[in-house]
Amino acid sequence: MSTNGSKPKFAMYWAASCGGCEIAVLNIGEKILDVDANFDVVFWPVAMDAKYKDVEAMEDGSITLCLFNGGIRNDENEHVARLLRRKSKILVAFGSCATEGCIPGLANLSRPQEVLDTAFSTISTDNPQGVRPIFDYAAPEGHIHIPVFQPRVRTLDQVVPVDYFMPGCPPESHQIAAVVDLVIQALHGQAELPPPGATLGAGPSTCCDECPRQRNVKAIKQFVRIQDLETIDPTLCLLEQGIPCNGPATRSGCGALCPKAGAQCIGCYGPAEGVVDYGARLITAFASVIDATDPAEIERILDGIPDPAGQFYRFNLARSLLRAGKSAWSPR
Amino acid sequence: MTKISIDPITRLEGHGKIEIFLNDEGDVANTYFQVPELRGFERFCVGRPVEEMPLLTNRICGVCPEAHHMAAAKAADAVYKVDPPPAAKKLRELLYSGFYFTDHTTHFYALGGPDFVMGPDAPVAERNILGVIHKVGLEIGGQVIQARKYGHHIVEIIGGRKVHPCTSIPGGLTKGITEEQRREIEKMGRWAIEFAQFSLKLFNDIVLGNPAYLDLILGDIYTHRTYYIGTVDANNKVNFYDGQVSVVDPDGKRLGKYRPHEYTEWIAEHVEPWTYLKFPYLKKVGWKGFVDGKDSGVYCATPLSRLNAADGMATPRAQEEYEKFYATLGGKPVHQRLATHWARLIELLYAAERIVELATDPEIASPKVHTVPTEKPTEGVGIVEAPRGTLTHHYWTDERGLLTRVNLIVGTTNNYAPMSMSIKKAAQAFIKKGVVVSEGILNRVEMAFRPYDPCLGCATHSLPGQMPLQVTIRDARGEVVDVLRQHC
Fold first, then answer.
1. What is the four-CA torsion angle of A63, A68, A74, A79, rounded to 10 degrees?
2. Is the pTM here over 0.80, yes or no?
3. Are residues A212 and A164 in the same domain?
4. Which portions of chain A are predicted below pLDDT 50?
5. Closest chain B C-alpha to A137 CA, distance in angstroms
6. Rounded to an integer, what is the distance from CA A77 to the centroid of its chain?
7. Is the dihedral of CA B141, B147, B153, B156 positive or negative?
8. Range(s) of the domain holding residue B246
9. N or C: which end of chain A has fewer CB within 10 A?
10. How many domains does chain B have?
């Protein structure tokens, strides 16, 4: 990695995440060399060496582009988010966790104490004293610390202002490469960046528009669980086969990878352009394909969706209008 | 008392931390290896449909989602008591072999290999993948990239995606492969065997040909006499996808084998209040603290452990290497942690051979890849060997197949206690009477850590192949007296 100080500075960071975003960036292949040629990479834990305090020593606004992935789960995540916001000109919420909370955002259906209690009392856990993690622990030899677990998972823009959003779990490598190209062109005055708040590296429509499957009747009599189907028709719309596919509410950009492989879209690219609440849009989409007018019949069909909270807010709960389930707020 | 904080490995920053305390004599009193992160999958997966677990638990780890995808799919099969058709099971294992090939290649060439290929005393600036390329030849860089690409491509063909595969469901897969895809995989597999053989030859020429390196491997600092576990097939040969988990004691004697649903009779997890991660141990032996030996339930689950826990490899070329491994290192079991790098290459060859075996199986391209479950869903356990250790998923559901309870013991977690012990041992060896051997401690703690390929917060695969360490030494008042750095 270059350490030449004259080039624009690039940073990438993971907060509460799985590392898949980093793998997706590494998978852009030779494009990674363009990043190296055009940027001075100053902070990227997976790929190079620099510490928090090196970032703290930088001038405010001195990082030109920062890709931030992972949600905000503990006080260390929050601290680094605030630090990188201060130091970065362009802060991008990168990937599903940072933009909408992703799967770990489903923890917002539970109280934080329940999350800890579950993890430290599973069937294989030997914990007769009911030990829980202690953030400031007085070991016999001295104090040691771990980050404080916060009440709920937050998206990056719920903690600091964000300039752009890049959806996907993870963002597809060809989309990352295109965004890298765009930023490099903009730095050379050959392109204009979109207005702040825009979504980058994704399409304007829905996953369905990228899906090669055929849509015919647009009406269903029942929802089915994917494992209950004798065969999955390889060319027909999955929703028409009764599989609760999230394509109609989900932003385009991935190329409909999962439906092409016979699996339903699970919504990892987040809400389509202009959608305020992902779950509300998906409920509307499902309602529009239900072929019934009798309330009892409609009820029966909807019972075919066994986990509404997960179905409608699988990736999006932390960002949704709900932000968290009721149980997360209720007192013990 | 003096506290030394090792803020480890840039790539684990925010995901791992080591605290070393010295006593009044300036010797190591204790070390704490902390994992500062929890996301809570065991809680928030409750209420979800069990068929979504292969998709949800992918998101535990973006480095090894294939392992969670497979363990979840097998646990979901078990919940429904459904047996997928043979082609589905073989395709899952084929995907998984492709994944192993990629993952082990990355670890050897970017992380573990440079220590050996360049030598532990080579200048820091050369002990990375670029150094390896300079020493071995430029074409190897291209081959490593090719190997990673091929492995990912096999995952994508069967799993539908490069990261977070999506095709495993209870009872099998959403789709099979075409004859054309089968041929493509076979071709990549044949290339993979050559690549793995080349990698072993490289290790052989450079490491085994040099007595100094062999001494390093066999040295005491990196040795722990622990129990070992690993999945084996019906012939007690290493298997990554299916079988029983074999447990051997520090003398190499098999304590027994357990089937997935029996895991709670064998494994329990100890809790410490200063970290978010638990410490698994062998229940039949018991938790005796961070110590090795036959009376301590601490065990290890790594490539080395899998070889120790098995009677051999199921493919011919890998079996030859397996025999050579134990002949060279003085018989079974091998306790020297640095030998894990060699064991990983033997597994790389096995994965490559297995790709070809499965890709040439007459029924692999069969369209029959799913069995509709008919039993009422209840409870099930799925176990696979993740590259970093035995991975266990345990689910309970209601009669609709919605999860009511989840238990996960993740690959790296198995090795939390032995990793902590290796760190302490290295620190004790290189910090004496208040004298910190700067190059020594940094280099050797790093080498103690690396064989386990820890994936804490799923964060191990570093691009430059270096393990940056920083040791801050503070006096009793907390004032910094010295800062040592390596790769920083």
1. 10
2. yes
3. no
4. 1-4, 331-332
5. 6
6. 15
7. negative
8. 227-335
9. C
10. 3
